[in-house]
Design brief:
The complex is a heterodimer of chains A (456) and B (67). With 456 residues, chain A is of the alpha/beta class. Chain A has 15 helices and 13 strands. The chains are: A alpha/beta (456), B mainly alpha (67).
Chain lengths: 456, 67
């Protein structure tokens, strides 16, 4: 067998379990590949070969025995405190056993590196970080997506077959869409969260997997959930298409690819498509931003804001200071909107099984100026992306981004959302889409790795 | 009284009231954020949410309890 680097995550695990692939050789090959490919990507900000070797030596014969994984700079490790992509964090950080670390360790996986991320997790682009930006493997001058920029770029560039991210307002799904990966934002509270510096206060953040396809995500998320995520067969799926700007104010190629994938899913599952109105969506989007921003302010004082680390970006410093100026009544009303949105979704999910819309309304914008062109005009990528990404974090429901096409040689992602606890259904639906399109988009690799450019 | 955009006055006054310092670039960022967020925040403030029951400590891993 080859060095195993280009196998899927589950193929690596199966080959190691069968004695066909030496996990020590796989680890060394992975470290060598990171050394070779990472300088152009800045996806991995730190490796620790001795720690990784020690982890492998002690690894139990779990379902991911010997599989190399990259973990986002949002999770502490016993030998390394997270930096959250920033020169200064708002909460204390220290080395320790985070929930995702324990989950990976107990499954037998080997952490080979820390993935870059957008500064303070504050953007869908990944273009600002204390380590410098990560680059999108499909086009190096484009954003990899944020805030889980490094984990996504690591998997897309085949440094590793799986990575662990975190999603507080779309931060797994945007990079999955921009980099052509499958990324699941689990139901709130279902995946490992212990040890996160905001674990006690956040009502939006979850850990989750970024992988090439849904089956790999299922394997890695099973470890993060601490339970086997069963495979099912979606039959007669009732697919709700969200009407309004989230589906309509979208770049034409992205809209076309997503509509085709929705039709693929309908046909593959023998289901039906219904249009769904969510009039609360725009207000719910703002509510998510207000709630997520307010939850990080507990340790903030004006004095502290006056002595922020000068290495924090001017954008980061300005936005932190603006958060303090938002009136409390707005955050209180945001809480009421959360209740309203949850009640609305509970009714909607009696009528449909999944809600579908583009994960991001345009493909990855440039790192230098992350602005997208939509039918309504030019918007910052963050303003545009948050429309689709926020609802799942506000309400707690699971959501997944599935690669379904391309535009300008860059991947397009479709987002599916389901009712609380139906994470498995989303993975099943993603696999149904893969079957329907012949796995064309999950098997595509970036041109820099020797492949032909993506064509729609 | 009708709400209006007083960014020019509001931001420096609010920062000063809190004792928060901001350099020229930070001020530009804050004003840009304000111009983006303030109109929808005003719309939010106009919503009467008194009839929406507050879900105290909602269990976000589950659907809300049916009423």
């Amino acid at each position: 067998m080859s060095d195993g680097l280009d196998l899927s995550l589950r193929q690596q695990a199966a080959a190691i379990a069968a004695g066909e692939l030496d996990p020590a050789a796989l680890l060394e090959a992975t470290l060598a590949r990171i050394e070779e490919r990472n300088p152009a990507l800045n996806a991995v900000v730190e490796t620790f070969p001795e720690r990784s070797r020690e982890m492998l030596a002690a690894a139990p014969r779990g379902p991911l025995h010997g599989v190399p994984i990259v973990i986002k700079d949002e999770w502490p490790l016993p030998w390394r405190a997270q930096r959250f992509g920033a020169a200064e964090m708002l909460a204390p950080a220290a080395p320790g056993e985070s929930g995702p670390y324990r989950a990976l360790r107990d499954a037998g996986a080997v952490i080979v590196g820390v993935g870059n991320m957008h500064e303070l997790g504050a953007s869908s682009t990944g273009n600002i970080s204390v380590y410098g930006p990560a680059h999108n493997p499909w086009k190096l001058d484009r954003c990899p997506g944020g805030s889980s920029s490094g984990p996504a770029a690591s998997v897309a560039a085949r440094l590793v077959a799986g990575a662990v991210g975190a999603d507080g307002v779309g931060s797994i799904r945007y990079p999955a869409a921009y980099c052509g990966l499958t990324g699941l934002k689990p139901t709130f509270g279902r995946s490992a969260m212990a040890g996160h510096h905001m674990a006690e206060v956040s009502t939006t953040i979850v850990s989750g997997a970024l992988c090439a396809d849904a089956a790999d995500c299922r394997a890695l998320d099973s470890a993060l959930f601490g339970e086997e995520l069963a495979v099912g067969e979606p039959r007669g799926l009732r697919i709700g298409v969200i009407r309004g700007e989230v589906s309509e104010d979208v770049a034409p190629d992205v809209r076309e690819a997503c509509e085709a994938a929705i039709e693929d899913l309908r046909r593959e599952s023998g289901g039906e498509v219904r249009e769904i109105e969510l009039p609360e969506l725009a207000a719910a989007t703002l509510a998510t931003v207000l709630i997520a921003n307010s939850e990080s302010l507990g340790g903030i004082t004006p004095e502290r804001l006056n002595r922020l680390d000068p290495e924090l970006s001017p954008l980061g410093r300005g936005l932190l200071k603006y958060r303090v100026l938002v009136p409390a009544i707005a955050t209180i009303k945001a809480g009421r909107l959360r209740t309203l949105a949850r009640q609305t979704l509970a009714r909607v999910f009696e009528e449909v099984d999944v809600l579908a819309c583009p994960t991001a309304p345009a493909v990855a914008p440039s790192l230098e100026a992350p602005v997208v062109e939509l039918p309504s005009g030019h918007l910052t990528a963050d303003e545009a992306n948050v429309r689709a990404g926020a609802l799942a974090n506000l309400t707690g429901i699971p959501a997944i981004s599935v690669p379904v096409g391309s535009s300008e040689g860059l991947p397009v992602g479709l987002q599916l959302q389901a009712a609380w606890g139906r994470d498995e259904l989303l993975l099943d639906a993603a696999e149904a889409i893969e079957r329907a399109n012949g796995r064309r988009w999950v098997e595509a690799v970036p041109p820099a790795l020797g492949a032909e450019p993506l064509e729609a | 009284m009708e709400a209006s955009d007083h960014t020019g006055d509001f931001i420096p006054a609010a920062l000063a009231a809190y004792g928060i310092e901001a350099d020229e670039i930070e001020l530009a960022v804050i004003q840009a954020a304000h111009q983006t967020l303030w109109p929808p925040i005003l719309e939010l403030l106009d919503l009467d949410t008194a009839a929406v029951p507050l879900e105290r400590d909602p269990d976000l891993s589950q659907a809300p309890p049916s009423r």
